[in-house]
Design brief:
single chain, alpha/beta, Rossmann fold, six-stranded parallel β-sheet, 12 strands, 16% strand, globular
Length: 292
Amino acid sequence: MRVLVTGAAGQVGRALLRAAPAGAVVVGLTRADLDVGDATAVAAAVDAHAPDVVLNAAAYTAVDRAEAEADEARRANRDAPAHLARACAACGVRFVHLSTDFVFDGRASVPYPPDAPPSPLGVYGASKAAGEAAVAEACPKALVLRTAWVHAAEGSNFVRTMLRLMEGPSPVRVVADQVGTPTHAVSLARAIWRLTETGATGVHHYTDAGVASWYDFAVAIREEALALGLLDRAAPVVPIRTAEFPTPARRPAYSVLDKTATYAALGGPAAHWRVELRAALAEAKARRSAGG
């Protein structure tokens, strides 16, 4: 199986490259290697590499900045997947595209099923929803996989931000009225490869198991980091309401995704998010010890 991974320098892209199954010939393309917003460049890359599968991990993920950079967000999250889907459809290549829980408005009180209609609150979510629609139109047999709250031992993410803030002298204030599910990039990568091997199509949801508020997540990061010795001391975590921490972009208050069908396709549920958090922090500690 020949596989082309776009967004290879991001936290999910790197995890995909490391988790590649034996026998897979994988080429990772970073933003410097391929401008996924350029339709001509995308078509040329798919033609040149002749993959069996394209895994699209490229995205604009700066949720707040997207409100002021709408054109850039749409180019990466709407236009780029459309270009990739068309190129794959033209060459008979399978296409896997990553999306987000931010396509929903968070007004639900039970997990969102894959067929729930998108209703994004901001530019980022709207650009990702538009990307999903473009993929479905251009490549009906594509797999669109929504995920949420992705973190890893490297890159820019909530876990690493919390670790940095907790080393400071001041209490860390974290919203407690937004609920979702943390997802380890390594866990997500394993699921993507498995769904690719099974030939899954359509819209699927994948996160680690369980639910949490951002406050719950932060408290767990603190506890696990102290237990592992990743932090010698840590500032306390203080719960606040969303209204006390205004941001340019509105966020869904509840964005738990229903993974029932996806877990069945994978042969069982994911590990709980706290188990995967512990694994990510252990990797972070190992990297620190190795000077990485």
